[in-house]
Predict the 3D structure of the following.
Amino acid sequence: MDKASASGAGDCGFESHQGRSFFPTFFFIPRSFFQYQIALSTILIQQQFSPYFSHSSRCLLRVLDTFGTEPVFNYKKWKPEKDDHNHDYGHTWGNWELNPRQFWTMYPHTPDNSFLGFVVEQHRSTSSPPPPDSQKSLVYGKELYMWKGKSDYLSIIAKYFDVHATIGSTVGKRDKLDWSLVPSLVHNHGILGGAELQQLLQESRLFVGLGFPYEGPAPLEAIAQGCVFLNPRVDPPVDRTNSDFFKKKPTNRQIDSQNPYMAAFVGEPHVYTFNAENLTEVELTVQRILKQPRPPPYLPYEFTFAGMLERITAYLNNQQYCRPHQWPPSDSLVTRLSRPGVSCKQTCYDEGLVCEPELFHLLNNEEAFAKNGIECPSIQRGHSVHAPSLVTSDSHCSLQDDELMLSCAGSEKDVKRLCSCRQYRRGQVALCLSCSL
């Protein structure tokens, strides 16, 4: 299929930092629909074509979804247990009532969904490698508005490195743009072609995040060329209650750095996460980097060609939503009881595991509570986003009536959640240790 631009549809397809779509933003539905194993869609296509999908054909859909869709936004009938004026659960981008795993995301940030990802190509220049003491830095910010209020932060970087950028502008618009946002010490190359950008990354020691855009692919492209990514912490974290960017997105998750995946799954010496508003911390971070040898190029296996093909093969062979099928296998279940007020996503992560929603049904019964030493004076069934769980305020146990609502997300201060976790393959978080392809 041809790649198509997804500009103007940020929720609907995966885009690179230069506007290239990694996946098609449309698909053709043939007359004999059921000859196909799956049908790739986007959120925008869902809006346009949903009346044409029969109930029996919806199980074939796989929806490309950059920022993820949590179960509470997917289930039409769900209403919050308490008044919640900050959350619009019935908005345009949700209410599809698919199995949450049918949403395929760009990063593994929403375990209720499936991590599809993308491929980062590792172009290596035929020229001589840059010296280990390269003093170039490249700023991650191609639009002028991203540079607002960053002068002090960049002045610290400039004490140790030459500062380069690839800020774009078009003829006729240049005079209308506020170039005063960019410090005069910055050497701007403008928009570069792929090969030129790869060369500049190879020549640079640092790839400097400005705090936005969130969760883009560029930091992975940078560390694949040997750069160190400076990943600004976001404090307070942004979510749909305090950010226009996330306001209409069907997720309650909080973004606590420019790229949470890089902080959680990569880390030092390739990624340094810090408070960019604290200039002392910025300088100490840069000094720490300078004391270390330049790290070699690194790319997590799950973002290589082989890693993505392995993951897609596993999905095509094992994700079955048109008939009952258990995958991942039930023997991959690792049960954990959360602390009050902690989600299953965080509970599993804190123990080096990942939450696995396809195993929740094994815990959604009275026997599972007893097996895990949890006493339940009474049982309540319903559509609580926290079930299965123990409500500590009155010691009752909660079970889920609808499997579409079983979720890794969600927490409540007086609720201990019974969590379905699993181990995962190194460099391939989507697959369990015993998962077959």
The chain is about 20% helix and 15% strand. The two ends are 24 Å apart (CA to CA). The longest strand covers residues 228-238.
